[in-house]
Write a structure and sequence with these properties.
- With 359 residues, this protein is α/β, with parallel strands linked by helices.
- The protein folds into 2 domains: 260 residues, Alpha-Beta Barrel (TIM Barrel), CATH 3.20.20.70; 73 residues, no CATH class.
- Helix content is 37%, strand content 16%.
- It has 13 helices and 13 strands.
- An 8-stranded parallel β-sheet has the order 3-11-10-8-7-6-5-4. Strands 9-13-12 form a 3-stranded antiparallel β-sheet, with no helix packed on it. The protein has a two-stranded antiparallel sheet with strand order 1-2.
- Helix 3 links the parallel strand 5 and strand 6.
- Helix 1 packs parallel to helix 2, helix 2 packs parallel to helix 3 and helix 5 packs parallel to helix 6.
- Bound molecules: flavin mononucleotide.
- The site of flavin mononucleotide (FMN) has 30 residues, from strand 5 and strand 11.
């Protein structure tokens, strides 16, 4: 597969973005190794303060930006010339600070989902070389962002990720009742977004398909169906280099297809996860009478009324290895993980990277 991917000023050797995985599942190690292998490596900003040396229990926001910059540094130590980006959820309270810290830390790409990043070009105006990539699940959302950016800032996205709510992991950009109905068409949406940019703005904007992409056949299918590249997250969890604890990775190896399902997150969005211990995840905060200490999300039903559970703490417990009371986010294909591999082996399988190097 010879196809490279152009995102703004950057040419990525292989048409792959590693999906950001919050709360230190994709930290500097995973992002650095993906970038070293020729993809876009992505540090996820959400909850990065937790389990970092910068967090003392009271300084979440301050520790978030410091930890993000430290993870970017780690990633660049692994891949000094790599293309390394940051995933920042718009729903985060410190979204704007994390965008600024991404730039200070040298991120080449900023990828934003969980909300519409309508003012992102303004926040990054001092760093025009940084590529801006919104994540959407509909043509409508892509159009709204494009109109606002074009009119307000004379700029269009450098690429758009189209995330399929029927297959992707983590928080999903669709109402619970609309997920899994069979109505969503991932590649019709990819082509629709591509077409919208062509007809409305006369621009060829790269569109990246995300959700449910696991092997080489899936990548080839995505490219045949009109995507310019793929974003893959779950596939990179069961790797030596992934930043999560071994038992988090083991949960992927152990899970069965029917263990994977949907939860309603206190963020007000559905999320896809391994549901085996979901009762214990919810019970943890009730049993321990936990209250919100981080204020991590702008809107959160746990913060506001103690309803459900604390999303960031439950994800943090899982990332550290407590998969009994911790929440393990994953995409629908996570059950396909059958061994711990390396990031390089994944690139070799997906893109014949080893054969290309030898040639
Ligand atoms: C453990 C995990 C954590 C995730 N965290 C985030 C996140 O912080 N921000 C985000 O935009 N997407 C997040 N996602 C979504 C991924 O970046 C990606 O788009 C999606 O999972 C792609 O589907 P796949 O996992 O089937 O490859 C997460 C996914 C997983 C599996």
């Amino acid at each position: 597969m010879q196809k490279s991917l152009k995102i703004g000023a950057y040419t990525v050797r292989y048409p792959l973005i590693q999906g950001g995985m919050g709360v230190r599942v994709s930290g500097g190690s995973l992002a650095g190794h993906v970038a070293k292998c020729g993809g876009v490596g992505v540090v996820a900003a959400a909850g990065i303060a937790l389990n970092s040396p910068f967090f003392n229990g009271r300084n979440y926001m301050q520790a978030d930006t410091a930890a993000l910059k430290a993870e970017l540094k780690k990633a660049y130590e692994i891949a000094p010339d790599g293309i390394i980006g940051v995933n920042v959820m718009v729903a985060l309270t410190d979204y704007e600070d994390l965008v600024k810290a991404s730039i200070e830390g040298g991120a080449k790409v900023i990828i934003c989902g969980a909300g519409l990043p309508l003012t992102l070009p303004e926040l990054t105006a001092h760093a025009p070389q940084v590529a801006l990539v919104p994540i959407v699940s509909s043509v409508r959302a892509a159009h709204l962002i494009a109109k606002k950016w074009h009119k307000g800032y004379g700029r269009l996205p450098d690429a758009v990720v189209v995330e399929d709510p029927d297959t992707a992991g983590g928080h999903l950009g669709e109402k619970l009742e609309n997920i899994g109905t069979g109505e969503y068409d991932q590649y019709a949406t990819v082509r629709g977004v591509k077409e919208m940019f062509r007809t409305e703005f006369g621009a060829d904007v790269p569109v990246i398909a995300a959700g449910g992409i696991w092997d080489r056949a899936d990548v080839l299918h995505a490219l045949e169906q009109g995507a310019d590249g793929v974003q893959m997250a779950s596939r990179f969890v069961a790797t030596v280099e992934c930043d999560a604890a071994d038992s988090f990775k083991q949960a992927y190896l152990d899970c069965k297809k029917e263990d994977i399902g949907l939860i309603m997150s206190p963020a007000g969005l559905p999320g896809r996860a391994i549901l085996t211990h979901q009762e214990d995840v919810v019970a943890y905060d009730q049993d321990n009478a936990t209250v919100c200490t981080t204020n991590c999300l702008k809107k959160c039903s746990f913060k506001e009324s103690g309803e459900r559970f604390c999303i960031v703490m439950s994800l943090d417990r899982a990332q550290r290895g407590d998969i009994e009371t911790g929440l393990v986010f994953c995409g629908t294909n996570a059950w396909k993980a059958d061994r711990i591999t390396t990031v390089q082996e994944i690139f070799d399988e997906l893109f014949d990277a080893a054969a290309e190097k030898a040639a």
